[in-house]
Design brief:
Chain lengths: 115, 115
């Protein structure tokens, strides 16, 4: 079965530090990749997505992610975090061709940015 | 553009009781999804509708869970009878179609506590 793994459950860092969140998936076929973010008290929002083309994807709020096909990875990065980046981040994958294009989520990473 | 609406936002019931959740997707979105998010985990797809037809309900516990999407717009998810392990946030999402390039938009969720 397809699975999505996020390496860190919790990350604590200070403002202006760099952030990198790991995401790996198990499926070997063609995939679409997403990062969603959930700020405290808010609903899940799309941060960025990769379908094809340039493997370095830029999203909202200064986030970017790099798709490395050979490593089955889609890591999220931000060079300098702000307190407002405190949130839970979810990696998600759609396996192309699967019935209904089912979105499979990782377990999430809680990020706390200290002011 | 109005987002995905869900109600109620919170529900507390005792085990063996029944409960229903309601979702109104973004206007014009043909595809509707129900997810279950247990604390500390990523969302897990329960059921996907395309208009008023079911596309994928492979992870829906059909002995106690049911869902319908009459007229291809609003949807209700019901649990009868509830178990302790059903305590979770139930998320509704919608997308324009069900193509693998489509983005899913999430509602705020209903937090269910089963005592």
């Amino acid at each position: 079965a397809q699975s999505v793994s996020q390496h860190n459950h919790h990350v604590i860092l200070s403002e202006a530090a760099s952030l990198e969140l790991g995401c790996n998936y198990s499926y070997g076929g063609t995939v679409n990749l997403f990062w969603y973010v959930q700020y405290p008290g808010q609903h899940l929002q799309l941060l960025l997505k990769y379908f094809s083309g340039d493997p370095l994807v830029k999203g909202i709020k200064g986030f970017e992610a790099e798709f490395i096909k050979s490593k089955f990875s889609f890591n999220l990065r931000k060079p300098s975090v702000q307190w407002s980046d405190t949130a839970e981040y979810f990696c998600a994958v759609i396996r192309r061709g699967a019935a209904g294009n089912k979105l499979t989520f990782g377990g999430g990473t809680r990020v706390l940015v200290k002011p | 553009e109005a987002g995905v609406a869900q109600s109620p936002r919170y529900k507390i019931i005792e085990k063996r009781q029944s409960v229903a959740f309601w979702c109104n997707p973004i206007s014009g979105h043909a595809t509707l999804y129900w997810y279950q998010q247990i604390l500390g985990q990523g969302p897990k797809l329960l059921i996907q509708f395309q208009n008023n037809g079911v596309v994928d309900d492979s992870q829906l516990p059909k002995d106690r869970f049911s869902a319908e999407r009459l007229k291809g717009v609003d949807s209700t998810l019901k649990i009868q009878p509830a178990k302790l392990e059903d305590s979770a946030v139930y998320l509704c999402a919608s997308s324009l179609v069900a193509g693998f390039t489509d983005t899913q938009y999430f509602g705020p969720g209903t937090r269910l506590t089963v005592l």
